[in-house]
Write a structure and sequence with these properties.
With about 325 residues, the protein is of the alpha/beta class. It has 9 helices and 14 strands. About 35% of the residues lie in helices and about 20% in strands. A 6-stranded mixed beta sheet has the order 3-2-1-4-7-6, sandwiched between helices. A 5-stranded mixed beta sheet has the order 12-11-10-13-14, sandwiched between helices. A 3-stranded mixed beta sheet has the order 5-8-9, with no helix packed on it. Helix 4 (about 185-195) runs antiparallel to helix 7 (about 245-260) and helix 7 (about 245-260) crosses helix 8 (about 275-290). It is globular.
Length: about 325
């Protein structure tokens, strides 16, 4: 267990992002400044049944016992496979809605009040052909969105969170009104690792901006991913694209398909929140659509949890 001394400034929040494959934590002061950070390969899938409190204590127990008054956890810790299920909060939703539906953890070994952020759900809007709506959900991304709202001061607009399952959220008056999920990252992994294309693609090849942008442009043609993806194979077969460039080309195809489905207008303004690698790729793709971008990274999660904490009376959670 890490037993580094507590930071000199008093911490006001222990913020955790507990996902499927990783566990990140930060100590924040009253202004939301990060005092210290830690990360562990202890995602929820590595925790045995009933073992979440033990993992929490082993990873952050020393911080929890320094007098910090509250711990907030976002991400998959609130799923059915996590520490405790936190039912999704329906959209439209803002800070107060999330704060009112936190799942508080009752456990005798905890040295600090602990609550899990519930995530969001929405229903797709009715289609012109009369099809019924389809539900959509997010866990963890809602905190990034609210952090981006607080960080940028933008209370209206489109917030894009690329990833395995990319999210496009419409924010209105500081509340998430609707969102859409695209399985872009997962489809790229499936095609590049488990399909016929895997025989041609060099997964560890460096990013090739020109090939990526060619893939994005091809996606805009409207032929569809099911057709365009096969072109990755034939470009290799007839040696019209070098092997190291194929992964970037395919990445451009799947991300370009996502953007095509959104019907972006030239000059659209978007807030992009994600890892530096994905922000780079989406910035390349969005620039081809004429979009204007403001980008944020991991700081959005801590900003969101800090902002959410301001709406909580954690002395009255029982």
């Amino acid at each position: 267990m890490n037993t580094a001394p507590a930071p000199a400034r008093p911490a006001q929040l222990l913020a955790l992002d507990w996902g499927t494959s990783s566990l990140r934590g930060a100590l924040l002061d009253a202004q939301g400044t990060v005092l210290d950070e830690r990360a562990f390969a202890r995602g929820i899938l590595t925790v045995p049944p009933g073992g979440f409190a033990e993992v929490f204590d082993a990873s952050f127990g020393d911080w929890a016992r320094t007098g910090v008054p509250l711990c907030l956890i976002s991400g998959m810790a609130g799923s059915k496979q996590g520490w405790a299920e936190a039912p999704y909060c329906p959209c439209p939703a803002g800070f107060a809605d999330l704060a009112g539906q936190l799942r508080w953890i009752e456990h005798s070994s905890l040295a600090i009040p602990v609550a899990i952020v519930p995530g969001l759900r929405c229903e797709s809007e009715l289609q012109a052909d009369g099809l019924p709506p389809v539900p959509d959900v997010m866990r963890g991304e809602e905190v990034q969105i609210f952090g981006a709202i607080r960080h940028t001061g933008r209370t209206n607009g489109i917030f894009v969170l690329p990833g395995t399952h990319s999210k496009w959220a419409e924010v209105q008056d500081g509340r998430v009104r609707q969102f859409q999920t695209f399985m872009t990252g997962e489809f790229f992994a499936l095609l590049s690792q488990h399909s016929l294309l895997a025989r041609s693609i060099l997964a560890d090849a460096p990013f090739d901006p020109a090939a990526f942008e060619q893939g994005v442009a091809r996606a805009r043609s409207g032929a569809g991913l099911l057709h365009n993806a096969f072109g990755t194979r034939t470009l290799s077969l007839f040696e019209r694209m070098a092997a190291p460039a194929l992964a970037s080309y395919l990445s451009g195809l799947v991300i370009g398909e996502e953007l095509r489905a959104r019907h972006l207008q030239p000059g659209a303004e978007l807030v992009l929140v994600g890892s530096s690698t994905l922000v780079q790729r989406y910035s390349h793709a969005l620039s081809q659509h004429g979009a204007r971008i403001q980008a944020l990274g991991a700081e959005a999660t801590w900003a969101g949890l800090h902002a959410l904490a301001q709406h909580i009376d954690h002395h009255d959670h029982t």
